[in-house]
């Protein structure tokens, strides 16, 4: 089980019992420091600073006791923001019609990075269809969810 999966298993029920939505977790490690970032929201959207503080105060003691990271780190509890990360296939279903930046574990053709609109999300096949601008035309690209490394919404201003 990955660190992210351990943290999710440990903290998601706590966050949801407080009335917040669990969005996801990221763990970043480099030679200088490590960051455990937990994304939470309100089910209807728009968590405020009081909510972030409440979640931080609730999860910090649990992390101290359970120690799922087993190394020094900085805890950050955050809203998903406008460039919301997409962690689950359900996120792709929810945000169909939105523009996303996508990084893959392995190249599709010769590319690992894509930016385009989520045109469809086939739950049975766990496949995402993107419409990607290619000059004046749109190119359709199909990606298996299992190959997605990172994905974020692209805010439209």
TrEMBL record:
Signal peptide: none annotated. Pfam families: DUF150_C (PF17384), RimP_N (PF02576). Residues 86-157 form the Ribosome maturation factor RimP C-terminal domain. Keywords: Cytoplasm, Ribosome biogenesis. One of its GO terms (cellular component) is cytosol. Its main location: cytoplasm. It is found in: Cytoplasm. GO terms for biological process: ribosomal small subunit assembly; translation. It comes from the Bacteria. The keyword Cytoplasm applies. Residues 10-83 form the Ribosome maturation factor RimP N-terminal domain. Required for maturation of 30S ribosomal subunits. PANTHER family: RIBOSOME MATURATION FACTOR RIMP. Belongs to the RimP family. This is Ribosome maturation factor RimP. The gene is rimP.
